[in-house]
Structure formats: C-alpha cells, structure tokens
C-alpha cells in the first residue's frame, strides 16, 4: 500500500512550514525544520523525512521534548573551534546555527569545527555538510544517537547508528556525498522486512538476547550489528567522541529516546565541520580532478548484472531529480497520519495526488 | 616458523637507523624512517613494520623509487590549510614534515589540515595522527594506495585499501586510536591464509576475474572487497579525495606500485590533520569524559566466549607494552632477509635472541 500518493516539493514545504508554525516555531525556524524533512523525503530517505519524523516532531514540540523557542548560544569560540548550546531546540535549527558558525570560521581561516550540545534529532546529516559544498568547501557532520548497535564482542547495545557524513564539491559529474550509518543497515530496513514478511540476511541484527538471527521480527526487537565488525564499531566510537564527548552533550545511553520520552529533551550532541578546498587547490582544478576520479571509478569493469557503478550520493541525487518532476511519493498511512496532524493543528490539508484511484484526496 | 626470534626495541632502532644512513639518508631522516618501521613492528603490525617493508624501502632508496635526499617544500599555506611537496622522499619523512606544519597551525588556530603530494609509502597512519594526541589534540590521517579493492558493483579494482585514522587523546584508560583499511581485511591476512593452507571466509576477496572465492590462493591472486559493501567503498573514495585529489597527487591507478617498480617514484598523496580539544572543552574534562565513555562501552554485556570488549587501539597498545618488555618477535625468514640487507650495506648485524634453539644468531 506504499507509494500510493504523490506530493509536489513546494506543497510539502508549504504544509510543513504551517505545521511547525502552528507548533509555535518562528517563521524562520519553521522553514528550516520543514526544509530538513522535505529534503530527506525528496532524496528518498523516508526514515529521515516527513514519513517517519513529522508526527513525532510535532508531538515532541507540543509536549516539551523539543523546545519550540530555543535561545541558542555560542558557548565558546576560539580560532577554528567552538561549542554551541542548542537549548533543546529542533535539531535542524541547532544544526544550521552551528553550521553558520562553521562556515564563518572556514571563510576566515580555511576551516571551521563546531560541536553542539543540548540538541535533538536533526534528520539527515548530509543536509548540514552540503552547505559547505555550496561554498566550494568539504563538509563534515556526525551525530550521536541512542544505543541500538552492539559493540564488537558484545551482546547488548553500546552505541547508536552514529552516522558520519563527508560532502565533497564536484564538477560536472556532481558532488560526492557519503552519509552513512556505522551499523550494517539502518533499523528501518529490518522494519521493512517485517512488513514484507521476509527474512533478513545473517549479520544484520541480533535478537533481544544478542543471538544472531535471520528473523526480521526477532531482529526488530533486538539490536543492530556494526558494519565491518570491529571497524564500524570503532568508527561509531569516533563519532560518539566528536558528537557527544567533545560537545559536552549526553553520551550514549544518557541520550533521550526520541519515540518514547516525548516530554524529555534528548540532550543530544552533533559535530559539524568545513574545509576550504581553495586552501589546497584552485576550486576549478579540484572540480576537474573530482570529475576525473568519478569517471575513472565508473569506468571500471562491472560485476555481472550490474548496469552501472554508482558513487556515494548518486542514488539519492537521482531520486531527488526525479521526484522534483514527478512529485514525492508518500505511503497511504503516512498521508493519513499527517493529515490528522494538520487537522488537529488547524492547518490546511496537504494537497496530494492519488495515483491508485479516481478519488483524489484520501479520506481521513 | 614465525616468532622464532626476538629483538629489543632499542637494538632494532639502532639497526634500522644504520641501514637507512647507509642508504644516504641524513641522520634525522634515517631516525624518522627507522622509528616508523620499529613502531609498526612493536605494535604487532608486521605489514607496516620491518618485516614487510625494510628490504623494499632499501631497494627503492638504492634504485630511485625513494629519494634519499628530498628537498621538501611547503607549496601553499593559508590559515589552517596547506599543501606540501615531498620530493619523492620516504613517506615517513614527508609525513612528519607535513604533521609539523599541521601542529603549528593547530596551536595557532585550533586546527590544521595539510595535504602532501609526491610522497611514497609511509607505513602506519596512526604514527602521524598520534603526534596530535601527544599535544591534547585529535589527530586525523589518510593515505591513498594502489588499487586492489573492488568498488561496490565492480569486478576489477578501482581504489586502494585507503586507510583512515582518527587518534583521540584519552585519560587513564588510554587513547582511542582507530587506524583501519577501508577493505574488509588487509591483503596480508589472505597471504597468511595461503601460508597456513587455510580457506578464507566468503566476502573477503574475489579471484582475478572478480568472482567471489573462499580459496586463499585465488584470493591472493585477485582483489579485496570493501568493508560493509557500498559503505567501505564510499569511505575509500573519500580517503582518495583527501589524499590524492586535494593534494594534487597521483590518483588511484596513477600511483606507482611499491613492490614492483622499484626505480619509479610513487607520486603518492596523504592527508594530515589535528583539532585542538581545548577549543571545545578543558582537556582534563575531556580526558575524564573519554574514560567514562570507554568504561561504559567495556562494561556492556559480552557475547559468549568473549573475555573482554576492547576499544580501538587497545590490542596494539597491549602488544607494544608486552614487546617492550619481552622483545619484538621476528620470523626466521624476516631475520635472514634483513641480515642480508645489513651485510650488503656493511651495517653491523641485528642482535637477536633465538627462542627455539641454543645457537643464538641465525646463520645467513
């Protein structure tokens, strides 16, 4: 029953802005938070978009888990380093506030590095890192998350999916944007297998007691495994250091749960950085070299059945280009849920196109 | 026949210094290169130590593949960014030259980021990154390498094992040092399986035609797979950007082979960085928070049969502590090879302790 409806990017943006404004966010903050969810959805990341996050963000804003009127502050700033306090505001708002400071530092000194504390879930990391790309810089972003991933040698979770993102400005072949969880897969993939009544490959997850499982149902109740065993576990620890330890934020199990404790701030930490390419090479020369690297990789021999070798960020960029034209697909239950949110807040319903029947708008 | 001999760290250092001085390196450069190989071996990384590299480095120094008298230069420097030219010198010498600049920048601006071109193989990445740790900073290091790893969806190599290293200063629990290749395993592990006549797990390597294999022999003739499939592949591309593209160095297949073209400089690129912790938190508070993170991770429940959950860098640090007391183990064929190198160069033989027989020094 998924992909039954489509919505235009501009309409989804209008809708999300009004929803967040109705939750008492300033117009500017409502726009930033709306953009985060729309961009996530537009790039095919429902787990970081409207589909999974809008109703939760609204509930948290209403119940105190996210502060709708944060008074963010720069706690310290020295050269290319600094710490910001997000005052429990929406993670997207805190993220852009920190990234503003990062870019200011990088324009002056060639790089900027800012850690954020007292923040909340911020959506997809690439949205912050790619702001550096727009200025001819390399962007960097990490965030901590509540522990659901086993350490190497463990049978209970120690760290979160702790994503790491590098965003590199490219030339004609596009930017190189790696935004990856340090677990083998995101939990969403296991939940999808549950819905589709499929097994999961061994190595994705363990059950609640820490035993390896191919059952999606048991895996969904259990925990994730780190990618590449001790390597992903090691990288998750590094992400925790940047995001949580360095920022003075809550660390690992201290981080508040997003989907349960709706009235409790998460105390979450993130980390943001930018590195100016022109401090190394003229940007045009760099872009040309990026094109050559990407063309070289894509020209290497393909495995049987593989039509094209893709580089990081390419699948998402293609989805976004397609959805900008055809509209963004939304599952029926997602549309129902967000129309209910709109009705409760007195916001004009989302204008969607129904693809499977003549009735147009779904009934609530 | 391995681990038959032991050598003291100080004696191995004396020996390597004399070998490299006999290859026309300045005393300072001979000491830096010696230290790199001794530290690699001391930390249990024979693949990055005397065992695998000494005879090759000597051959390359003699035949022109490494310039023994490099005139290194800072090509550009602005704020926290810069590029150095290694003049085809030993990678370790170039690495420390770049890291000197990085640390100078970081002391002034809170961070420093330097790319190096015209370099050669530099041993283990952690040796450069951990210099930042000694100053209460986070260290970062990447290097490109010749392509032997498949891209996701490929059947021929596109990128090298392209390691990435983060080094974090710790407290009483020690530093957190992640130094990992972005392939599932290093090629050395497959070569070891060949020697031991064992199969390798599916997913480590492919044969020369790009087909998955459990044969160590076929895998050793073939190529490595990236860790975590598209994730390790994506990370390897990011490492290539930092090390090769940004530095203006040779990229991927342009990099010279270390073990074959002995008379040809490699044109290799690396990247080095440091981030001053005190720009975020007082260093003592940070160290205490690191201790808490490490203690928390190590206290999580262990899988059956696992005695202890380790953090990144812990196995290597323990090996180094042990070998400092007991001596560094060297395999018999390694000892034979390096004594031959010494004899050819007129250097006093390495004083080793033979553990398996009464005869003391091995016969050449």
Q: Which features characterize this protein?
A:
homodimer; 364 residues; alpha+beta; 12 strands; disordered C terminus
Characterise this structure.
Two copies of one chain form a homodimer. The two termini of chain A are 16 Å apart. Chain A is built from eleven helices and twelve strands. The first copy, chain A, is of the alpha+beta class and 364 residues long. In chain A, the strands form three sheets. The first copy, chain A, has a seven-stranded mixed sheet with strand order 2-3-4-10-5-6-7. The first copy, chain A, is globular, with a radius of gyration of 21 Å. At the A-B interface, strand 3, strand 4, strand 7, helix 8 and helix 9 of A face strand 3, strand 4, strand 7, helix 8 and helix 9 of B.
Question: TL;DR of this structure?
Answer:
Two copies of one chain form a homodimer. Chain A has helices at 9-22, 27-42, 50-63, 91-109, 126-133, 187-195, 216-221, 230-245, 283-298, 314-326, 332-345, and strands spanning 5-7, 73-78, 81-85, 111-119, 137-143, 164-168, 176-180, 205-206, 223-224, 268-276, 328-330, 353-354. Chain A has 364 residues and is of the alpha+beta class.
Q: Mean pLDDT score of chain A, rounded?
A: 95
**Alpha carbon gap, first and last residue of chain A:** 16 Å
Secondary structure class of chain A reads alpha+beta
- Most extensive contact: A-B, 75 and 75 residues
Provide the β-strand percentage band of chain A. Answer: 15-25%
- Give the C-alpha Rg of chain A: 21 Å
Judging from the principal axes of the Cα atoms, what is the shape of chain A? globular
Low-confidence stretches of chain A: 358-364
What order do the SSEs of chain A take from the amino end to the carboxyl end, as H and E? Answer: EHHHEEHEHEEEHEHEHEHHEHE
Find the count of extended strands of chain A (DSSP E, 2+ residues).
12
Oligomer: homodimer
User: How many separate helices of chain A?
Assistant: 11
- Largest sheet entry of chain A: 7 strands, mixed
Query: What order do the strands of the largest sheet of chain A run in, or round the barrel if closed?
Result: 2-3-4-10-5-6-7
Fraction of residues in helix of chain A: 25-40%
């Amino acid at each position: 029953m998924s992909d039954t409806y489509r919505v235009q990017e501009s309409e989804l943006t209008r809708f999300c802005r009004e929803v967040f404004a109705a939750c008492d966010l300033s117009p500017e903050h409502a726009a930033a938070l709306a953009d985060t969810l729309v961009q996530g959805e537009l790039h095919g990341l429902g787990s970081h978009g409207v589909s999974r996050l809008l109703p939760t963000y609204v509930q948290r804003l209403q119940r105190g888990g996210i502060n709708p009127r944060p008074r963010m502050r720069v706690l310290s700033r020295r050269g290319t380093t600094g710490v910001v306090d997000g005052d429990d505001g929406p993670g997207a708002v805190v993220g852009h506030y920190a990234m503003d400071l990062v870019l200011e530092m990088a324009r002056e000194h060639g790089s900027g590095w800012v850690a954020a504390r007292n923040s909340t879930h911020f959506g997809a990391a690439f949205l912050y890192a790619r702001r550096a790309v727009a200025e001819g810089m390399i962007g960097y972003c990490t965030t901590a998350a509540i522990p659901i991933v086993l350490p190497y040698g463990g049978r209970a979770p120690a760290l979160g999916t702790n994503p790491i993102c590098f965003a590199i400005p490219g030339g004609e072949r596009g930017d190189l944007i790696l935004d990856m969880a340090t677990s083998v897969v995101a939990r969403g993939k296991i939940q999808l297998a549950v819905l589709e009544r499929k097994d999961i490959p061994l190595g994705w997850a363990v059950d609640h007691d820490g035993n390896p499982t191919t059952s999606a149902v048991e895996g969904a109740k259990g925990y994730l495994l780190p990618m590449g065993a001790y390597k992903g576990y090691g990288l998750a620890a590094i992400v925790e250091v940047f995001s949580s330890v360095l920022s003075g934020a809550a660390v690992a199990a201290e981080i508040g749960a997003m989907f349960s404790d709706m009235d409790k701030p998460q105390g979450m930490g993130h980390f943001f950085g930018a590195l100016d390419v022109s401090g190394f090479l003229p940007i045009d020369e760099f872009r040309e070299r990026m094109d050559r690297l990407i063309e070289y990789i894509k020209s290497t021999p393909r495995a049987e059945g593989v039509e094209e070798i893709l580089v990081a960020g390419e699948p998402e960029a293609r989805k976004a280009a397609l959805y900008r034209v055809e509209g963004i697909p939304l599952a029926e239950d997602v549309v129902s849920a967000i129309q209910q949110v709109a009705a409760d807040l007195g916001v004009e319903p989302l204008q969607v196109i129904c693809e499977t029947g003549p009735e147009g708008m779904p009934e609530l």
